[in-house]
Structures are given as structure tokens and as C-alpha cells.
Amino acid sequence: MTDRHGGGVSGGRDPDTVHSALRELVMAATVRIHIPGAGYAPEESGEFLGSGFFIAPNWVLTCAHVVHGGEGDGGEVTVICRAGPFGEPYAVPGEVAATLPERAERSVQGDWPDPDLALVRLREPVEHECLYVSERSSPQYAEGQVFYAGWASVRGRPQPLDGFLAVHGTVGDRSAGARLSLGGNVLPFGVSGGPVIDPVRGEVVGVLKPRADHGPGGISIGIEQLRTLPVTPPTRPPAPRRHGPSQPDLERPDPSRPESYRPDPPRPDLHRPGPYGPEPHRSGPYEPDHRPDPRRPDPYRPDLYQAIWHAHDRYHRDRQLSGVSGRRTWVGLQAELGARPGRVLSPYERVELLGRLADLEPPDSTRGLLDILQSLPDFRAPTPSPAPRGWRDGLGVLYESARHDGALPLVVEYAMRVMTAERPVSSPVLDAEAALWGWIRQAATRLGSGRHGDLARRRARHLGDRLGESDGRRDTGYPYESARESSAGSALRLSVLLQVEHLAWDPEHCDWSVAVVRRDGEVTPLDEGQRVGLDGLASCLAAPLAEAFRRCDEPGRPVALYAALPHHLLDLPVDEWRLRPGADPLGGERPVLIRCADRGRLPGEDDGYDTGLLAHDEESDRRDRWRRLHALPGRDTTRAEILDCDDAVRRPVPAVSVLRGLPPGTVPVLCREGDRSYEDDDTALARIVRAGYGVVLWRRWRRPADPLCGEFHREARTIVDGAAGAAELPALVHGLRDRMSEGLPESFWARGIALLYDDPDQPLPGGDDLLEAP
User: Fold this and answer.
1) What pLDDT is recorded for position 604?
2) 492: pLDDT strictly greater than 90
3) How many helices and strands, by DSSP H and E, does the chain display?
């Protein structure tokens, strides 16, 4: 089997000998998984659940349906492993640390939704082998074979099983993750969760899952699907000094206050331009102010995904350096196979590089890693899905896309930019950067003296900055374009756009798409779906939205979500959706703003439907209102006008002609959206939009659970009238939702609050918004 990544052949070595060595290494790290409290005796097959394999010290990867296949809720299992290829088996208690997806409603035993993966943490440290796992983004093959291994119940006793399966192609789509379709032998019960290995390069590429109908073959779930694990909020132990621009002396947590105490964060200063406030007359997507609240205590918790792969790469680096006589290593086997990772690195060079990268802190965010990759010279490639998340993933992207003659310069440049990335400075960090520089210097000797000298000068500048010998200015050492903008600019230039299209012939279903949008209007589509029921839209969009947010979020700066909805769905509670069980509502995690997706088909003066585009005067009025609301920040620039309620008495929303006559600084407010007391209430929001308003505030009426109208009227006027311009409203609404998710009673008046924030200078992709004439 060959592919574009530059695999090898056995080069005259006895294939049976190489296969025997591969099998020995694989089976040494492949484990049996049993119900909690089981022993290791092979006759206890009734307690046998399936297979798994070590990917890092004390970490086992398997299928989610395996750990949930026995009694209980899948929180505890027993792992039966060996210290080496010929060691005696022993049982170790294990804890299911994560499953993908987190929860599932299974229709049949053994069924679990894609990607059907689980991570098991051993409760006791033990000696064992670990498999080598590919760092490539999504290894897929059009033909060839893969090697598999696992355990199976044979005549009532668990027995080791291995062999080859033919690759028949791929199944699945972007949202579920493409999987290899494997054909060949019928796979017996128990082999689920075992490793799938590329025998050409000697690396694990997937997790085995037999066919649900027990037919021949099965599928390989790509290792890259682990990138969809929930992201742990980035927290660090205290560092002596932050590298980069000077940071304000923020207030430290008060140990005398209870942990649940969280004072309101300071309001953003929107009277001055800069990273924490919009610039005057800015045209572009909303730029939220999300400076992290330093007063909110949060214990140090490493991100699970990063912690596992850093441990994996350090293990294989150290395993190779240990030089234990007589014991094979994965690197040695890969060298025998003739593998050339990325076509330019030997297996020894690769394992050392990955080990050096693993000694450094992981990227602050997927967005930061993508910025580095996209800044590499002469490197243009689409971002794979799931997007790369760690340093090793970035290296795998280079393997996927680099030209044959440019792979080594890209790998060296990538390593250089990782070394000079912003991170807290400490002695271990300086040592880790020095070790990575040693690898870069050695690899650069193959690029010529000129390139080596340039790298050395950049290293000297970087080291001087690290040791405080510079004048304090940030110098990344990048001779090309900057890998990242300022810490604010990288997040502020992006937003996530959800577009929902109503199907006129099928009102209970819709089409949808998710994309990433830059401030300059460039759109990167990520995923789409068709004919989805409205009642299942939130669950269908959980995975695509999670992937989009991971690509865009910066630490402390969650990207804004724009939901472009047809006018009759403007009240869809997108901000109340949850990406996973137990998570905060979307509106508490990030700004969620509404846009109108069918502005050219809004109800007219007579509540009929106008199938043409908006008239020029209507569009001109819309732009004029937006610009007046977003003029230079100052008090009294906005004024709330409650349109549907007066002294707790419901009243109809005025006609379009009346709405157009309201003062330019008016922000319409609806107290009882959803209370259908009048014949034309179904089109109330649409008429307001038709009248030229791009900023509208309302609450979804949940009578009788809602608080009294007077409280909402008072607080809504305080928010709108006290804002320093309409540009502050998205941050204020997000703050309200965040406080509600924290359970603060003083924010409960805002339950169901929603905000239309529809910039006329940012037309929707493929929409019917008119573009402004040049």
C-alpha cells in the first residue's frame, strides 16, 4: 500500500520477519476490557466487553460502545494488560474519562453514534507498551490493506486476534468524520476497539469497529476524531513573567471570598478605539470584548487532548533514547519498513521533533495554531476537518499538503515559529525551547548555509527577548508575514455564521450551513445539511458548531455566532441551545446574535409578501439608521421604544409606516414576543425589520413563568439608554446571559432575551441583501 505521504517498503528484508515484529509491538499494547471488578483469568469471558490499546502511559483508547456494553453506566471498567510482549497478564481498574459523543440513546445493544470513541484512564500506574499513533490529519487510502488486532471470545475464552483487512474506500461525511470501509473476514465479538495500523509506515491510523450486521469487514474510525473532544478552558499555573507586550496588573483572587463569588466584570471602555472597543464608524462584524475575568478562580486543569498526545510523543522519544537492549521500538520498526515521514524526515528525526514539541505548552487555541500554519511561506492548503489542535497535528498537516521539494523548509519554519510562539517564561520553558532549537539547527544544515544563518539570527533575537535583553518590544522573528495579529485582532476578525433556509414546500424542515466569516467578508464553508426537522436542528448542529468555534476561539475571547434566520424563525432560541449535555447555553458561552436571512421577502405594508428586493429608499433608510446608532460612542445616542406593551397591557405592534417615523436613535423593544394576542402578531418582528431596523431587542414570552412586565421594561430601558452606542449592546446582552447561566437572580428578568444585530454593510453569503454601490 502506498500513498502520497511517502511510505516505504521492506527493502529486501524478510516480510514475514517485519510482520512478526509489527505484530509483537501491536499485541504488547493491545488490551482486553472487562466489567468492573473482573479478574485476568481467561475463562472469565462472560465479563469480557471488548478490546482497546494504549496510546499514552496509563491511557487506553477504545470504542464507546465497548465501555458501555456491560453493567452500570460505563464509568468504571477493568483493563487487562501485560508489561511486555511475553509478560503475564494482570488486571487494573480503569475509569472512563471521556466518550465521543458524551452520551447516546442506543436503539440496540452495542450501538453508539459516531465517532464512537472512549478514553480510559488507569487508576494505578503500571508498566506497559504504547502504540505509535499517526500525527497525520486524516489518513485515507483508495486501495491496499491495513493491519488490525484485538481480542475475541473463541470457544468461551478471550484469545488474541490479528490480521489484514482490505481497504474498500471511505464512508461518512464531514460532519460525522470520514471513516475507512474495510472488507475481508468476519470480525467476531470482542475485537471492537482494537487498533487499525498502516503497515507501510507502522503507525496507528484508526480504531476498529465491526459491522453492525455482523457481516464481513468493518470500519476504521479515524484517530483524528479525538480532536473533537471538548476543549478545557486554558488555565495555567502562575508564571513568573509573561512574554510579549506588557500586561496590566490585574486584581488577584481574594482567598477570603467564596469560590462561587463572581463580581460583575468591568464594563468595556467603548469610548476609545483599540483591542477592547470598536473603532468609530467601524463597518464589520460585531467585535466582542471578552477579556478574561482574573477575579474568577479556576484551578489548573490541562486540556485532555493535549495532555494525552504530549505524553504519547514524550513516551516514544524517551523510549527510543533509553536504549534498552533487546527491546524493539516503534521507531526502529519504522526504519526497517523504510518509512519517511513527510518524505523528508527519518523516523528518528520525527520522533525527536515531536518529543521536543511535546515539551512545550500546547497552542493556546486551534485558532492560534491555524494562524501559524497559514502564515508559512508558500504554503496554502485547506484546513482539514476536524481542524488541527496540537503541535503534532500541525506537523501532520504539512505532511498532507507540502510539495515534495518544499516539505523540509516548511517543517523547519514551522518548528521555528512554534519555538518563538508567545508563552509564559520559566526555566523549563527556556530549556525546552533550547532543545527544540537544537533539532532545528541540525535539520537546517540540509537547507544550506544561508538559511542556517538566517535561522540563527532569528534565534539570537528571540533569546535576547526571552532573557529580557531587548527593549521590550515583541519580536516574533518571522521574516515573512506575521503568524498572528495582536491577541485581540486574531479573534476579532472572525465570526461564525449559521444560515437556516426555510423550505416553503415543507414548513417543518429546513436546510442549514455553517461557515467562518472574516471581517473582510471572506467566507469559509465548513458544513451543511438538508431537510432537517426544526425540532432536531439543535442536536444536528451541535458537532458542526463545536468545530467552528474551536477553529475561531481565542483564550478568553469566544467568537460570536450570527444566526441568519428566515423572518418567521427570527425567534428561534439559538442562544438556548447546548452543544453537549451539561454545557452552558450557547448564549452564556459566547455572543449569539440574530440576522434576517430573507430580507427581500418580508411582509409589506398590507402584511402581504413582497417577492422582489427591497426598494432603494427602504435600503437607504436601513443604512442610515444603522450608522446613526453606531456613531461616535456617547450617551443618549440610543433610546429604547417598547412597542407591544404599555403598563402591562398588551398592544399591537405599529404598522411599517409608523415604525419608519420613529426617531433615528430608536431601538425597538418587544416585551411579549410570542404572545399571539392580535391577528398580525406573527409578523411583528418581520415588520420591524422591514421598517429599516438592524438592532432590535426582545424577550420570548413564556407566560405565566415570566416576571412582571414592569421589571423587564425598566431594565431593558436601562440597558439600551445607558449603552454607549448600539455597538455595546451585544456585549451587554451576552453578559446578561452569562449571569443567568451562573444562576444570579438579579439577571432573571432577562430570561429569553434576544438581540437582532444585522449590519447592512455585511451582506450574507448568497443572500438577497443589496450591496452598496461604489
Assistant:
1) 62
2) no
3) 18, 25
Cβ–Cβ < 8 Å for 744, 602: no
CA dist 770 → 49, 613, 614, 617 (Å): 60, 8, 8, 12
Read off the C-alpha cell for 443: 535539520
The pLDDT assigned to 633 comes to: 57
CA–CA separation, 61 and 33 (whole Å): 11
**Which one-letter DSSP state was computed for residue 278?**
P
- Residue in 592, 602, 623 with CA at minimum distance from that of residue 761: 623
Nearest CA-CA partner of 223 in 209, 204, 199: 204
- Measured CA to CA in angstroms, residue 543 lies from 139, 530, 536 at distances of 21, 16, 13
Type and span of the H or E element at 649: strand 649-650
- Tell me 615's DSSP state: P
- What does DSSP assign to residue 741? H
137: Cβ contacts below 8 Å, ≥ 6 apart? 224, 384, 388, 393, 396, 397, 400
Specify whether the CB–CB gap between 491 and 559 falls below 8 A.
yes
Residue 684 DSSP class: H
β-bridge pairing 179-186 and 195-198: unpaired
CA 120 – CA 123 distance, rounded (Å): 9
Please say whether the beta carbons of 540 and 532 come within 8 A: yes
Question: Which grid coordinates are listed for 144?
Answer: 491496499
Whose CA is closest to 60, among 79, 37, 41, 85?
A: 79
Tell me which DSSP letter residue 433 carries: H
Closest CA to 218 of 50, 75, 35, 23: 50
Q: From the centroid of its chain, how far is CA 577?
A: 17
Residue type, position 496, single letter: V
Phi, psi of 512 (to 5 degrees): -145, 160
CB 467 within 8 A of CB 241: no
Q: Which residue has the cell 485532555?
A: 304
Cell of 265: 466584570
| Adjacent-strand bridge partners of 164 | 147
What is the C-alpha to C-alpha distance for residues 588 and 583, in angstroms, rounded to an integer? 10
Q: Give me 111's grid cell.
A: 450501538
Contacts of 710-715 spanning 24+ positions with Cβ under 8 A:
710/648, 711/749, 712/671, 712/749, 712/750, 713/642, 713/645, 713/671, 715/749, 715/750
Q: How many CB atoms lie within 10 A of CB 335?
A: 16
Residue with cell 463545536: 546
Taking only Cα atoms into account, the Rg of the chain, rounded to an integer number of angstroms, comes to: 29
418 and 478 Cβ atoms separated by less than 8 Å: no
660-711 pLDDT per residue, tens:
999 988 999 999 888 877 877 788 899 999 999 999 999 998 766 555 788 8
The helix/strand/coil state of 486 is coil
Mean pLDDT value across the chain: 79
Secondary structure class of 523 (helix, strand, coil): strand
User: From CA 493, how far away is CA 241, in angstroms rounded?
Assistant: 28
